[in-house]
Input
Amino acid sequence: MDGTGGGRRQRPQGTALVEARGITKLFGSFKANDDINLSIRPGEIHALLGENGAGKSTLVKILYGSLQPSEGEILWKGQKVGIPSPSAARRLGIGMVFQHFSLFDALTVTENIALALPDRKSRSALAREIEKVSAEFGLPLNPNSVIVDLSVGERQRVEIVRCLLQNPELLIMDEPTSVLTPQEADDLFLTLDKLTARGCAVLYISHRLEEVKQICHHATILRHGKVVAECDPQKESAAKLASLMVGAEIHALSSEVPVPENTRTRLSIRSLSLPEPHPFAVALHDISLDVRAGEIVGIAGIAGNGQGEFFDAVSGEQLAATATAINIDGKPAGRLGVTARRRLGAAFVPEERIGHGAVPRLRLSDNVLLTRHSTGDQLMRVGVIDFEGTRTLAERVSRSFDVRKASSDPEAGSLSGGNLQKFMVGREIDRQPGVLVVSQPTWGVDAGAAAVIRQALIDLARSGSAVLVISQDLDEIFEISDRVAVMSRGYLSEALPAKSVTREAIGLMMAGLGEGRRSNGEELAHAHHS
Amino acid sequence: MRIILERRPDHSQTMVLLSPVLAIALSLVSFFIIFAVSKIDPFQALYVYFIEPLTALWSIEDLLAKAIPIILIAIGLSFCYQSAVWNIGAEGQLAAGALAGSIIPVLQPTWQGPLVVTAMMVMGVLGGMAYAAIPAVLKIRFNANETLTTLMLVYVANLFLDYVARGPWRDPGGYNFPNSRAFDEGQMLPIVAGDSIRLSIVFVIIAVIAAWFLTSKTITGFKIRVLGMSPRAGAFGGFSRNKMVMMTFLISGGLAGLAGICEVAGPIGQLRTTVSPGYGFTAIIVAFLGRLHPFGILIAGLLLALSYMGGEGAQVALGLSDQTTQVFQGMLLFYVLACDSFIYYRLKIVRQRAVDPALAR
Amino acid sequence: MTMLEGILLTIVTAATPLLFAALGELVAERAGVLNLGVEGMMAVGAVCGFAACNMTGMPLMGALAGIAAGMLAAGLFGVVALFFVANQNATGVALTLFGLGLSALIGDAFVGIPGVAVPRVNIPYLSDLPVVGRLVFGEDPFVYVAIALAIGVWWFLFKTRAGLILRSVGDNHNSAHALGFSVFRTRFLAVLFGGACAGLGGAYLSLVYTPQWTQAMTAGRGWIALALVVFASWLPGRLVIGALLFGAVSILQLHAQAIGVGIPSQFLSMLPYIVTIVALVLISRNRALLSVNTPACLGRPFVPDV
Output
């Protein structure tokens, strides 16, 4: 759907609401921001584009007062201002919606919002105000709900309402649609339109070029901490924007070998159901899926719809009720633990790098041992570890996956996100596993590393392995998957050939496998554009 | 201007070695100041405390005798703390070991000899293990916080020991003193060196070497470290947290039990209402001061045994309370913990002070 | 005074120090700090309270000294565990060992000295009512302070903005920091409050409960208070009930010892500790309930990125 529509969006005229001049931020000797200039006008949606690590978050934190610049100054309506803290930013009229929500799970919506506002009114008066604002901007909320019980989309609404109650003149949004279905994202764009119509400016951080082209008036592009370009995103092609962000043309993935047909099933999931392991988790309902040799199956879905629980069930961190719920190369594995499943030829890469897939305070060689202690690599003899062997293996993985590291065997925590991810994927692919299950393979990873990882996944599949990819990133899903399934509220849809499904269909399935919860927003959209 | 902590990119190898030394130095300086303020000659006090016990052979033997149970227990605790299991009830497990190991010599006074002593040792270990298994099961099965349960069980064990020593096992010919009968030499650990160094010193050496091998060379030690640092990653590696909880409890309970029976079948020579002046708690400090490393624990154990000796000396020579030692030990642990943070962090001076209008009400 | 009246009265007295210490710890834990040093803070509170009361002859001075001593001890914990972000479990144990040693050292001079009697409240007519008279209107002043404190803590946590900030710090310190609240300051103040309460609880022991100083007179009450906080699932109201229950157990076993029920006294003395374990097991086995109530950041260190 074309959320905000038809006509060209004109950048509003007028003097800058906020202006950053020569902002530089040093972390030790590392320049996260290098002499950045940025100017945002009232009523515009200003995109801040850049890869992970380009310095977007640092710049935003400086504008919001969470970080102090090493050099440079900020002008608010032409006046030089210091923004020593987030509360100072809020007093100026700057609101921020975080990518990872800054909400308090155990508190109610009202309490959460009260925390961000200066102490001035009773909670019941605040609750009434919340209801008023949420109705006004099409963001339905119950002020007395406890955050834990809300969906991700609802939580974002809380964040937005929290900002709106302070009548901001500048709203900063950090990757707001990364947690939304395409339809929810359209609703969000309508809200943003209502805001800008009142003269509020929006600083919109995103790496989703299509949506930036759709809604933003102006774009500033960062690379390696520097502003590399400013442009009107509607006039540029997505490819052009991408190459500005990355600094080079991104080489396309190659999967010249076609998907082999009628190969044997290597991973088979049969009516897998699991109750929620704890109150904040999602139960899995009757999941069935086959992954054949040679193919990549992608599982799309919004975070928190049971992907984590599903990964744990497939990896064996959580055992299934019956042995036949999960089969690896034809052998029932539902009641086997992680190690036994690895011995059957399966390998796993979890979403969380630090503290799940890797131990940050252990060296890479020790982290190799974490998943490969019992997989026939001869890394130990009668329980005694062969440290030479683990170091050699770590080095081999680092070399073949281009893991950049400061010393020969550093602690995992000292690696950048992209390098650690390459290491973790490489650690498993190095085994040539028959089945690879990987969750969010390129989450928070720069474009170069992402390309390496995706290519490796394709190559592994084409060599005869079955690869299952769980990802929130629809672009990624479509880029590498042969078949696509959608996970929503613990249910998994049928896996369809990637070429035959549209994003629109996937989006609807993400929102609850076809439930008609969007009627409200649809009407609003029509009203707005007619 | 204010001082804050800043994360180091990689942990500091220098501080790993330096932090205990720094902590000891800071403790000594603090002690020096405290003595000076209380008008006690600080040089004499420190001499009495830390040098004098090393000047006579008998007191060095005495020092080793005190270090033995402390090191044994601390080695066991290091397994627990590495896997983030907070067993602070070694004092109770020690009592349980002393009780279980004393069953034979008290009930069958005629049984004697190396076999009997071996059996006593085994029973002591099993007693400590069994007692440590209680909080382990409560944690695994019912999710009960082990810090609280182990500590509660110290009180229970000490009361039970008190009951046994005063009640059923009281020596009928002991003029109504609340002790068991005195053990015969054939029910005690043999002396292997000097006048009073018993076989238990060999146990310590074995325990230190075995612990070093287990933690640094084997997959078991790896599992313990991984599960302690990150239970989630441990589960992903295929390691069972519950098994590890049970295992570390059994190791530490067993070693504490061994320490208990070694005390009873050694320096004490009978079962009393109390068999330990707090070795189980001192061992906690030793475990941390030794950086949870067996060799570190060996050195730290000797140092804290020295402070016990010094404390006794200071009581006589300076009229200081025996509690001074405990204060010193507690202070030392504070300094160790604070200094340890320099392994992962460094101090940084920030000029600008963040203002918090939201809080300044 | 009837026997029953006497028992009920002493149960309240036995519950009071537990309630003080546990209320303080509850606030600290709501802010996300697990301070296992309650026992040590109670011990220094007890000895300093007794010493001050003994020197001035005024129980009020004793109470204030107990509070001050508890706060100093808590401050030490705060510096090591919050500023130096040391492991909170280990730091708490250090505080207990240090506090017990220090209290014994200070207390050497006061062993065997009788304390100053703290008068009970006496309201004409009301205090003379049968049964409820002494129980409701004739307790010592500390009891009323403890009850007021329980209400005050509830009101602070759930009705004030500062209490909301404190809970938010315990629930998600990263978000609280992002909103501009000082996690360190909030936690440090909460820990100091915990120390003040534990110190007051300790002072109550040496001033009222057994008006004298004996070494290790806290006898594990600090640890029981810690268990009580879990037992009460971090709610002040349940804490009052829990403290009375534990007070009842410790008083009833004392009476059982006095009457001589044929069970060795050591076994009766074990009762409060065993009951603590049993209560902890009963409450902890329901993992779902516990995970909903436990402050999410409890015991987790916080260092902001600068």
